[in-house]
Amino acid sequence: MSLLADLWTEMRPFAGLKVLAATPIFRNTLVQYRTLMAGGAELWVGRSLGTLGAAMPCDLKIVELVRQSGIPVISDEDVRSGKVADDFDLILDCAGQFAFCHPRVGFVELTRSGVQFYEKSEHPVYVADSGIVKRIETVLGTGDGCFRGLEKLGYKDFEDRKLVVFGSGKVGCGIALQGVRRGMEVCTVTNTKLCNSSTDFSAVLTNNGVRIVDYLDDPALTEAIAGADFLVTATGVKHALTKPAVSAILANEHLVIANMGVEDEFGEMVPQSRVLNEKAPLNFMLEEPTHLKYIDASLALHAALGECLLNDTAENNGNAPFKGPNNPPDEIEQKILMTTIQNGFIGQEICDMMH
Q: Does the chain have fewer CB atoms within 10 Å around its N or its C terminus?
């Protein structure tokens, strides 16, 4: 983000443009706001109250700080009701909170869970989560944040304990590998029919000694949950757990359970009081949900794709260059990736992850 701020202070790519940034509002996010404003953006900050899906967690102290700084903070309902005009030029969205809007240029979506809201969009939508850069946050940073959340709540003894993780994508993989590093016996529950897909990390998990169980294998699933000490959901799917899985969770009274997805992955049969942080993503209870060293590249990509979309539109004579979700251009990802490896604090961790 520092590199972009330096470049954009001179280039001013967002000068005269009304930009809505809907990244979850925490201390780290301020770095992205500063960079967009350095680029000339008339910045608005958006937060979801749950009109479209799950409410987006935020740090209310930071929300107030942003407002005191003179930056408008609005909700999705403010726009839906007409209280705030839907006249943004560019929207940097997260989890599809503002997918119903009609920005003049288009959208950049930060997460994989938000793509579903853009599948039939008439607007161009760059998806930051479709590339390599986002893996730094989701594989390295989110797993780290999950365990920092557990430690904040007093859970510090992980050696030889058993962990069950639902989901074998980037987030689930990161949590599972963090468990392995802490000496845990880890089992991942997933749809094994998708184990060869581009979004699945089962091969990485297996290579690190993680047991894989199919989510429809009720006997194996029940056995794994019955013997577990910790269970974390990271599928990104609302009410993802099957009834046998839920029954096994409720039967294991000593089981510590947490959610790391935006949606409630447990379903109504599992009460909020039974899940740490009342079913909200566990790391969002922290002042720094994901350490800046892990999320910096994601925030940079989110913003840089906004500049890219502006350039694409200009090259297409002011018209939309494409419709619906699209992957980040390789050259932008490579630039951010190499900057992070060469100049950041986690270069070696990234290289290890990519191998």
A: C
DSSP 241-284: S-HHHHHHHHH-TT-EEEE-SSS--S-TTS-GGGSGGGGS-GGG
Answer for the pair 72, 93: CB distance below 8 angstroms, yes or no.
Answer: no
CATH architecture of 2-130+291-354: 3-Layer(aba) Sandwich (3.40)
The token pair that represents 333 in the structure block = 């990802």
Residue among 58, 51, 32, 55 at smallest CA distance from 43: 32
Q: What per-residue confidence (pLDDT) applies to 254?
A: 96
pTM: 0.82
Structure tokens at 292: 């800046």
Q: Which CATH number is 136-285 given?
A: 3.40.50.720
Q: Which of 24-28, 50-54, 221-225 has the lowest mean pLDDT?
A: 50-54
Return d(Cα 321, Cα 316) in angstroms, integer.
6
pLDDT range class, residue 52, cuts 50, 70, 90: low
Residue 43 has pLDDT above 70, yes or no: yes
Query: 154: helix, coil or strand?
Result: coil
Asked whether the beta carbons of 348 and 305 are under 8 A apart, the reply is no
